[in-house]
Amino acid sequence: xxxxxxxxxxxxxxxxxxxxxxxxxQRDSDLPISVIAEQVGLSTTPIWRRIKRMEAAGLIRARVxxxxxxxxxxPMTVFIGITAPRHEMEWLERFRALIDEIPEVVEAYRxxxxxxxxxxxxxxxxxxxxxVYQRMIASLDFSQINSSISMEELKFTTAVPTKYL
Length: 165
Known about the structure:
This protein is of the alpha+beta class and 165 residues long. Among the domains are: 16-56, Orthogonal Bundle (Arc Repressor Mutant, subunit A); 76-149, Lrp/AsnC effector binding domain/regulation of amino acid metabolism (RAM) domain (Alpha-Beta Plaits, 2-Layer Sandwich), CATH 3.30.70. It contains five helices and four strands, in the order H-H-H-E-H-E-E-H-E. Strands 2-3-1-4 form a four-stranded antiparallel beta sheet. 12% of the residues are buried.
């Protein structure tokens, strides 16, 4: 006998039409519903309902503006690899709190392998990066910090593949 208890709510499924809507929205979430409907091949009401359903299910988390990094005067991207001095929850919580307070840290991930964490930092120049670096090392212990400055962005997208839905 299985001990698995089915959830009260059935799993939400998504179809090819949902994928098409997501693909359009990921290119430009500011499009009017009528334009999305035209591109997908449905009328506006079903498109609106599907978008609302995907939002309610958490598939669509937010609609945001993507700001040009250079025009925002933060043209330098630095990737920082961090090795933690110890693997304890207290350290991780302090690390999370620290990076939440630093607006230049725009992405951060916990990893497998020899590097424990990687962060993406955007700054106007090396002096500003050094200020971020100094703030970090003054606030928390690290075993190792390795920084790499991006020379060129080869690909950037916020779109995720929808073919796996």
